Amino acid sequence: MRSQAAWAERRQGRLLAAGVLLALTACGSNPAVRRARVIADADRDAKAAVAKEGELDVAKIPAKSFAVIPFSATTHDTLIDPLRYGLASMLVNDLAKSPQLKLVERLHTEAILRELKMVDDGITDPKDAPRAGRLMGARRMLIGDAAIGSDRRVRLSARVVDVLSGTVEDLLTADAPVERVLDAEKALALLIFDKLGITLTPAQRTRVEQQQTKQLAALVAYGRGAQADAKGDAAVAAKSYQQAVQLDGRFSVARAQAATITVAATAPTATNLERVLDFSAQAINVPVVTKTADVATAPLAASNGFTITFVIRVIP
Predict the structure, then answer these.
(1) Do 147 and 181 meet the contact criterion of CB atoms below 8 Å apart?
(2) CA 117, chain centre distance (Å)
(3) How far apart are CA 284 and CA 11, in angstroms?
(4) Contact 69/142 with Cβ under 8 angstroms?
(5) For the chain, what percent of residues have pLDDT higher than 70?
């Protein structure tokens, strides 16, 4: 009888430990959790940048660095709002096709805008761009606006601001029917390359002109994800990117955001591992054997979770 009670206790302990491991793995693999970590890291870096703004050495900003921020809009509705964020994100993706530009990561630019309380309205005055650009680490910055006319055409307007000198390039514009709004984004990307004096190879131009999606609904869903990112809403961002993929499975940029969100979380410390191992060992009430060094050197957020190997002795 005593043996059966001990066996039942050990079995309950094993189930509890398995539940702990499943919870840890699920937490690491949940897109919203991963996105929240990335946003939190970006916000922390933005706060640090603003706090040390006086110490910034603008001469060290890389010459090729370039930042694109969400388009502003004079009017707001359920269509233009997500599009102005989504199109800016697509523009970052296309401008990155040339090695002559070093694009500042979108989540970093948005974290700086959050810290400066400039997310909702964006940067409409070129005079405000240099400070934001310096904090982002960008030599040049693209600011612009998006609008939908009565003829159902989307018009994109943009200026390139030199962050160091404060000079502003001439206005660039592109437009297209709302159903083919990515045509306007592609045209604007090519105009920007031309304005910057960048000559694309035939292969690079082909990649820039490639349409990620032809479904407006998928692009709008992706834009809602980019908009949520900009506002720091990880749950809505993850959900919206997944919805974009459901609407168009070939939408590779959306698929990348939904499935392979970059995690900048730090590796778990040995202390954290020891606490997990200690709790699990107590639950099972048997010795635990694990390769602690291997686990400790593997970043927790670099995969969907981490594996702990248990050796369980069941004494009849």
Answers:
(1) no
(2) 19
(3) 8
(4) yes
(5) 72
Number of C-alpha atoms within 13 angstroms, CB side, residue 172? 22
Specify the CATH superfamily of domain 56-259: TolB, N-terminal domain (3.40.50.10070)
pLDDT above 60 (res 18): no
Residue, of 223 and 118, whose pLDDT is higher: 223
177: β partners: 153
CB 251 within 8 A of CB 212: yes
Buried residues in 194-233 as b, exposed as e (16+ CB within 10 A): eebeeebeeebbeebbeebbeebebbbbbbbbbbbbbbbb
List, for residues 102-149, the tens digit of each pLDDT value: 999 988 999 999 999 888 777 878 888 999 999 999 999 999 999 999
Tokens representing residue 141 in the block: 């910055």
Beta strands per DSSP E along 48-139: 65-68, 102-103
Q: What is the DSSP string of 144-207?
A: EEEEE-TTSEEEEEEEEEETTT--BPPPEEEEEEGGGHHHHHHHHHHHHHHHTTPPPPHHHHHH
Task: Give the CB-side neighbour count of residue 255, counting CA atoms within 13 A.
Answer: 9
Q: What digits encode the pLDDT tens for the residues 84-106?
A: 999 999 999 999 999 999 999 98
Residue pair 215/245 in contact (Cβ under 8 Å)? The answer is no
Structural domain boundaries of the chain?
1-55+266-316, 56-259
What's the pLDDT tens digit per position in 161-218?
999 988 998 899 999 999 999 999 999 999 999 999 999 999 999 999 999 999 999 9
